[in-house]
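agent> step 3/5: call structure_predict on target 'NTP pyrophosphohydrolase' (Rahnella variigena).
agent> reason: downstream docking stage needs a structural representation; sequence fetched in step 2, passing through unchanged.
tool.input:
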Amino acid sequence: MKMIDVVAALIECEGKLLLARRDASSDQAGLWEFPGGKVETGESQPSALVRELQEELGIKATVEEFITTSESQQPARLIRLHGWRVSGFTGTITLRCHSEIHWVAPDDVLSFDLAPADIPLIEAYLAKFAV
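tool.output (status=ok):
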């Protein structure tokens, strides 16, 4: 079985987290997610996250700390989604892979229609960082 490692950013700004909505051409179109993408061979997770956020949103991220990993079994592959806390970024967000973004209070994230693999990430984030 093929295993794919993917990274996701829980980007913080002024007490809120960034959610991005998958566009119509994406797998799980219309669902909300924490942005990120696939880890390439030989790449560390933080490096992959910095690269993916540059590609997807046009920003340079400050990756802080690992949050948790969730696994999603699919017919021919296992996807491991690794969540990372991002404390800040430089640049202006430009949507390249998403239809919209929304800044959300952490306690309100679960009220959005999240991609299933992202749910354990916000639950772990809330357990670690809830005030």
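agent> step 4/5: record observation. The beta strands are 2-13, 16-22, 32-33, 36-38, 60-74, 77-90, 98-104.
agent> proceeding.
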